[in-house]
Amino acid sequence: MSSERALLQALAELKANPEQSAAVAETRHCIVLAGPGSGKTKTLTTAMARVLAQDVVEPRGVACVTYNNECAIELETRLARLGVVPGDRAFIGTVHGFALSQVIGPYARCVPIGLPANFRVATRLEARAAVEVAYRNVINGTDNPHQRWEFASEKRKRDVDRSRPEWLRRNPELAAFIETYEAELRRQGLLDFDDMPLLAYRMIKENVWIREALRARFPVLFVDEYQDLGHALHELVLLLCFEGGIRLFAVGDADQSIYALAGANPELLESLTRRTDVRTIKLRFNYRSGGKIIRASLGALGEERDYRGVDGAPEGDLSFWEAPYGLDSQAQVIADTIIPKLIEQGFEPGQIAVLYRTAKLGNKVAVALKDADIPFVRTDTNALVKRSSRFARFIEECARWATGGWRDADPSYARLLSQAITLVFGRHASEREEQDLSAQLMAFLNASIETAETTNAWLQRLSRELITPWSDVARNSEQEWQVCDEMIANTDPACDLDLSLAHFAGRIEGAGRVNLSTLHSAKGREFDAVIMYGVNNTDFPSDRDKRTPAGLREARRLFYVGVTRPKKHLSLVFQEQHFSPWVLELYQRSQKQ
Ligand SMILES: Nc1ncnc2c1ncn2[C@@H]1O[C@H](COP(=O)(O)OP(=O)(O)OP(=O)(O)O)[C@@H](O)[C@H]1O
Fold first, then answer.
1. What is the ipTM for the molecules in this complex?
2. Residue 438 has what DSSP assignment?
3. Which residue has its alpha carbon closest to ligand 1 atom 7?
4. What's the pTM value of the predicted model, to 2 decimals?
5. Do 203 and 97 fall into the same domain?
6. Which of 94, 131, 289, 492 is most exposed, with the fewest beta carbons within 10 Å of its own?
7. Whether 570 contacts 338, CB under 8 Å
8. Structural domain of 79
């Protein structure tokens, strides 16, 4: 479908909802605040396509930032359906990616911030070594430097503007620790992950011309999941949008804020809605879930909200499962009873998700599903293909091309080549570089068609034939070549982990694979049926959550995020007599109208 027709169709879909339509048509600063499943992302992507088609004239474009790579990839997929692809007119990525590729990369050599032209992102080991040097020089005590750094790191994320008096007034020793650490990195031509938005902020604040250059290129800034983005993004927004003249379109839901550890603060989003130069639009309908699941979710949150299901939508279905013992026995119930029952009821495996708190719990479910011969795909840190890694996803797409995708261009070779160019050279490559890269990629892929190689052998060849030459010429400052080594280790035939390439590419018999995901990775996604695993009184909340009121509130929001993912069915699994107190509240609320 042409992008024009796709946009017209998307606009028509929102027509029946006046708030969504008003947000899409808005030409001033606009914040959309709403609950789960209310179409925030749908509204944002439609607004972005509309702005590119109607408000912003080529060669100008728009930028869209979000919390992590997973969300950025999800946004890219949704925007691609509207004909918007990343490129010169559309930046789609994380705040860190924006800072690095749109501010630090192009302008660092023009301003005195202490980075050489060939700067690089520090490895974890390099960053740890710099912490130790700074600790010795500034504090020189007897405690663990890395434990002390945790406090410093918190201050670094919170006190973004160091020209304000609180930078030195609130704990000057930590300020010196941070500055010495950063000087140690700069001495080696390095920057770290947290440096990215901080340096970009400093460059934009101190150099009005950079602000103007950004406004010329991106007159509108879109922000998804604003509640999770923390102080650095917030300060960047204040600078770029409220001082720098860029128009802001942001969406978020403070009830779904689950990244306090990374510096998120739901209050920042609320503070924008109090500004008189911002139009705040609230969405009321939940298009995703049935009424019973919506009521249950309010019990999970422990607060009332005015959210409604759409008229005529089915109620949805809730069920509670007790297992006689601990987590292993709960995983067994999922594999032996719940999933087979859902499939019998007509749910497709690809539309069923099992959600849990940590990847370690995912291991238990994975073992149980493997024993029961239920195909699954993991989207947590122990996943074979990390959803948050663009390189891992590129490798998976190559496998899809090699195992049949080449026949019907799903994915197309052009798409793979453009991904490879971005991974190796950032956005731009010379004609010669593009030709060389294409020749290497094509030779590798052609040799992969109808190959008898298993995934492990195929990955080893990919490492030799693509990564070795590519890592020599790469210009992208955020490289993840080690992801392929991790995949090779995770498919080691000696440990019985290897699988066919078709299986790795997701081309297996049946209607897809059950999704296993942490609650954090399930954010922003939806499934027909969701099974919440391990909702025991010792885990929701855990002792650690109970240490502070803020920790307890965040754990509860995490529970809420899980409960709001299903469209039609929600199962909660816990140990007999040991269910979380929030499960009881959820049940009681689901029974009330
Ligand atoms: N106006 C609409 N008409 C029909 N379906 C809609 C409409 N708006 C949104 N939807 C559907 O509702 C579902 C939820 O939308 P979306 O993911 O954009 O919500 P969200 O508010 O971003 O959710 P969350 O915060 O829970 O991630 C999607 O399936 C979307 O297609």
1. 0.99
2. H
3. 39
4. 0.88
5. yes
6. 492
7. no
8. 1-105+199-283
